[in-house]
Predict the structure.
Amino acid sequence: MTVLNKLASSIGRRDTEPNKDLAQQIVAKNDKAAIKELVANLNNENKNLQSDCVKTLYEIGERKPELIADYDKEFLELLSNKNNRLVWGAMTALDCIASINPKGIYKNLALILKISDTGSVITKDHAIGILTKLASVKEYNDTALALLLDQLQTAATNQLPMYAENAIPVIGDKYKSGFIKVLSSRLDDIEKETKRVRVEKVIKKLSK
């Protein structure tokens, strides 16, 4: 039986639980043939099927990223799709594999950030996640941190605390002062006290 028959839209479901269950099954079996079929249908004429495929693929990626790491090109192609669901789904998948296939992701950073600039909150979150993961790779550290610093200057205040917290482990001594300066300059922009306190804690940690 084709794996497509197990997707949510194929069995008349509007929720995504069948796709999560399918991802779990594929991971458990290391079913590369099923993954190949899902990837092949990312451009299926049926939009619901497309959405189910990308959802299942990034659910696989969240559980075992190496299973989808070789499909960076296919996910990158989806970033230019007019269907926003596919765009943020593809960005989620790319975020999943950024640590496994940093080279393939790094050489397409310009496209990733271009899409992120005009994308949804989820698209932006995962683009920032990609930068953070690339910053943990020695040869990409300088470029990724410089770009991350630029992103923090204009990031939405609702997302800023999360971005800053996630970046802490990859910020070396060379960039600490820059991050402290940018985050400090953003404090007055943050209206919610709880979020401002979170950013202040990051600044405090970096100042040690």
Q: What stands out?
A: The radius of gyration is 18 Å. The chain has twelve helices and no strands. The chain has a mean pLDDT of 96. The domain at 3-134 is CATH 1.25.10.10 (Leucine-rich Repeat Variant).
